[in-house]
Automatic annotation (TrEMBL):
Matching PROSITE patterns: PROKAR_LIPOPROTEIN
Signal sequence residues: 1-21
UniProt keyword annotations, A-Z: Signal
Compositional bias of kind Polar residues: 24-42
Species name: Ramlibacter alkalitolerans
Chain spans, region Disordered: 23-53
UniProt-recorded name of the protein: Lipoprotein
Keyword Signal in annotation: yes
Length: 76
């Protein structure tokens, strides 16, 4: 009796472990534009960037992409 109960319990746990939970797209919800900033001082913001300046924000992203994330620039 206990052996049957144990086998049934293990089978139930194995089947329950295979179930997939529902996945929904929740993401980050923000009311502000990304270039509005966080009102934090450097080291959390780029030096020379002022919160709210969209053109400067886009330029900072381009500079960071070219200098920091472009592996072709790093190759000697």
């Amino acid at each position: 009796m206990t052996r049957t109960f144990l086998l049934l319990s293990l089978a139930a746990l194995a089947v329950a472990g295979c179930a997939e939970r529902e996945q929904t797209a929740s993401g980050i919800k923000s009311d502000t534009a990304p270039f509005s900033g966080t009102n934090k001082q450097p080291p959390f913001t780029a030096v020379g960037w002022k919160p709210g300046d969209r053109a400067n924000w886009e330029q900072q992203l381009k500079t960071r992409t070219v200098n920091g994330q472009n592996d072709y620039v790093k190759v000697p």
